[in-house]
Design a protein that fits this description.
Layout: H1 2-19, E1 36-40, E2 45-48, E3 54-58, E4 72-76, E5 85-86, E6 89-94, E7 97-102, E8 111-116, E9 132-138, E10 146-150, E11 155-158, E12 164-168, E13 182-186, E14 189-190, E15 193-198, E16 201-206, E17 215-220, E18 236-242, E19 250-254, E20 259-262, E21 268-272, E22 286-290, E23 293-294, E24 297-302, E25 305-310, E26 319-324, E27 340-346, E28 361-364, E29 370-371, E30 377-379, E31 382-388, E32 392-393, E33 395-396, E34 401-402, E35 410-412, E36 416-419, H2 426-445, E37 466-467, E38 470-473, E39 478-481, E40 486-488, E41 498-501, E42 505-508, E43 512-514
Parallel strand pairs: 2-9, 11-18, 20-27, 28-31, 29-32, 30-35, 31-36, 37-40, 38-41, 39-42, 40-43
Antiparallel strand pairs: 1-3, 3-7, 4-5, 4-8, 6-7, 8-9, 10-12, 12-16, 13-14, 13-17, 15-16, 17-18, 19-21, 21-25, 22-23, 22-26, 24-25, 26-27, 33-34
Length: 515
């Protein structure tokens, strides 16, 4: 009998232990009763964001049907710390976590009380032993503001391909920076574009260029919020005016239009009157053709100069057409008004090298200066240097005087081209630079490396010789014409060419005779 009585007593004790977690006046039993393991925000948390979502994590799977708006609540204290105010929200459950999502942002500087009641049960029907209650407080409202914009308010002369930027004083919620909250209008017409956000900056990129000489209005609406869910106080609105449309132009080409005898290794060049967008100077906007056949080549852009370098030498004695299309645009996104087209003809294979732009110069200083030391000096052509204009002395052209004195007066009939300062300009510097490039190219094209096999018929002395077309190279490094006339006999060929290669110099004491 004593053994049976002991077994019954143990059974009754076990039933009491198993069912005790359902009674409010018993301690919870680890491993049997559900408990709240963690909350977010944690108890007594401060400076909680106003867009906080409140979560409760349990130690085991719970019965979702017991986790409701009545068993999981959030209340706030009133201004006078009187009757608590119930917060409206949506309660959900997933995994072992219950979530309370307020319908609207929380109030700043307010204490909130979260509560999970003992009506919440696990999947076996075991309930919390008692209501779980904790408190936290929100922080002060940190209002986001727009601190700078580009263009600025009332800015004028804004480029037509402008990307608008608005900079905030704090990180923003990127999902609230969109085409609804960042808008652009011309009058009442909405401008379409793409809105992006990075760092503290919002960007509006119009789908097409803006219209010249036009007022636009940009707006950041109160829908733009910071990462705590706080919106800007009022719509931020600013206006700006675009600049007058000035279409770029091609002002110079090399070869020039209808040029003849152009070298077959020519790099074709177009010079603009303003800076261009390099991304628009490509093989599709700078085209070279021989008849209907497109020439393959590489297009580059530097300064205000576009260059087309053919992949292979051009055909001899052939006519080519070069085109800059209206796809070429300046840095403001304005295209040239019309396709710019010009033609040139390459040299016959028996004709000498093309001098390019350097042939217009009567004197060229390279990257040094040019000084005139005489009265009434006349140069029928141009002079130039890639150095500063101050290194040209004793000359004038139709537009400017370059440090002339009463004893040093030189008239240049076809313009002086130098680097700045004035009267040197970026445009004149570009022409001088091209002249230097063409001079170097011509020199290289007739150098021993390019034209090997030259002979030294007179051991450096050309006087008294009669020479047929060909290549002549001084073995000693110098040529002289000092003991008689040098006669160049073309033998009836109007395109005859002579090339003289010398490492040091040419001394002329008599004369050259051509026949």
């Amino acid at each position: 009998m004593k053994q049976k009585k002991l077994i019954v007593t143990l059974a009754i004790a076990l039933v009491i232990l198993i069912t005790s977690c359902a009674k409010d006046d018993f301690q919870e039993t680890i491993g049997v009763c559900p408990i709240v393991k963690a909350t977010n925000p944690i108890s007594i948390a401060l400076e909680v964001p106003l867009n906080q979502v409140v979560t409760v994590t349990f130690n085991e799977d719970m019965n979702p049907s017991t986790i409701t708006q009545s068993s999981f609540t959030l209340t706030s204290t009133s201004a006078s710390f009187g009757t608590p105010i119930l917060v409206t929200g949506v309660v959900t459950y997933s995994g072992v976590t219950a979530t309370f999502s307020p319908i609207t942002n929380l109030t700043p500087n307010t204490t909130y009380i979260g509560k999970v009641t003992s009506a919440v049960k696990d999947t076996k029907g075991n309930a919390l032993q008692e209501d779980y209650v904790w408190a936290f407080s929100t922080g002060a409202t940190l209002q986001p503001i727009v601190i700078t914009t580009s263009p600025t308010t009332n800015e004028t002369g804004v480029v037509l391909n402008k990307v608008l930027r608005a900079t905030f004083n704090m990180p923003m919620d990127a999902t609230t920076i969109n085409a609804t909250t960042f808008t652009l209008q011309q009058g009442t017409t909405a401008i379409t574009g793409a809105v992006t956000y990075s760092g503290n900056d919002a960007f509006f990129t119009p789908n097409s260029n803006l219209i010249g000489n036009t007022i636009y209005t940009a707006t950041i609406t109160i829908g733009a919020k910071n990462t705590a869910g706080t919106p800007i106080a009022v719509n931020y609105v600013w206006s700006f005016t675009t600049g007058v449309i000035i279409a770029p132009k091609v002002i110079l080409t090399d070869p020039i239009n209808n040029a003849a005898n152009v070298a077959v290794n020519k790099v074709v060049i177009a010079t603009f009157d303003m800076a261009m967008d390099p991304l628009t100077i490509t093989e599709s906007t700078f085209i070279l053709k021989e008849g209907a056949t497109a020439v393959m080549g590489v297009v580059t852009y530097s300064g205000m100069i576009a260059s087309f370098t053919p992949n292979n030498p051009l055909l001899s004695d052939a006519t080519y057409t070069a085109t800059i299309t209206i796809g070429a645009k300046n840095i403001a996104g304005v295209a040239i008004a019309n396709d710019y087209v010009w033609n040139f003809t390459t040299i016959n294979s028996s004709i000498g090298p093309e001098l390019g732009m350097i042939k217009q110069f009567g004197a060229f200083g390279g990257n040094a200066g040019i000084t005139n030391q005489g009265l009434n000096t006349v140069i029928n052509g141009s002079i130039g240097t890639t150095a500063a204009s101050t290194l040209i002395t004793g000359f004038h052209d139709a537009t400017a005087i370059y440090t002339e004195t009463p004893l040093n007066v030189g008239n240049v009939t076809n313009g002086i081209f130098t680097a700045p300062p004035m009267p040197g300009t970026a445009a004149s510097f570009a022409i001088a630079t091209q002249g230097l490039s063409d001079a170097n190219a011509a020199y290289i094209s007739i150098s021993p490396a390019s034209m090997p096999g030259g002979i030294d018929a007179g051991a450096g002395e050309l006087g008294g010789l009669t020479l047929a077309p060909g290549i002549y190279k001084s073995a000693s490094g110098t040529f002289n014409i000092s003991n008689g006339d040098l006669t160049l006999d073309a033998q009836g060929d109007p395109n005859a060419t002579w090339v003289f290669q010398t490492a040091a110099g040419l001394t002329v004491g008599i004369a050259c005779i051509f026949r």
